[in-house]
Structures are given as C-alpha cells and as structure tokens.
Design a protein that fits this description.
Distance between the termini: 51 Å
Largest sheet: none
Number of domains: 2
Number of helices: 3
Length: about 70
C-alpha cells in the first residue's frame, strides 16, 4: 500500500515537471505561432534584443496581422 502511494506521488511529481517544461512551447504552438516567432520571443525574454528591435522584427514576421499599438 505504501509503495503504491510513493509510486503515485513520484508519478505526479514527474507529470507536473514535464508539464511545466512543455507548457510554454505548447501554448505558442496552440496559438499558431511558428518557430521564428517563438525564437524571437525567447531572444526578447532572454534580453538578447531590445524592445524596439523585437517590435520591428515581430512586425516583419507577422505582416499585416500585427499592429504595434496592440503590443503588450
């Protein structure tokens, strides 16, 4: 009985860990973003590019569907 509880807790911890690692990727895939946009967002989040450079590149990648006034 105790083995079953321990196994269940370990399995739960593993599921939560995998989910937390995959959640950002799955969120962007489900939102329909391509890999270029995901890479750009990661570079911006890591501080590799400035906000202005991020906006410019995002505008180029998304084309007419992106409007800078909606930038968050």
């Amino acid at each position: 009985m105790i083995r079953l509880i321990v196994f269940g807790l370990i399995a739960l911890i593993l599921v939560i860990a995998v989910w937390s690692l995959l959640a950002p990727y799955l969120r962007s895939v489900l939102a329909g973003e391509d890999s270029a946009v995901r890479t750009l967002r990661k570079r911006y989040a890591d501080g590799e590019i400035s906000s202005r450079e991020y906006q410019e590149k995002l505008t180029v990648l998304k084309g007419d569907s992106y409007h800078p006034e909606n930038f968050d």
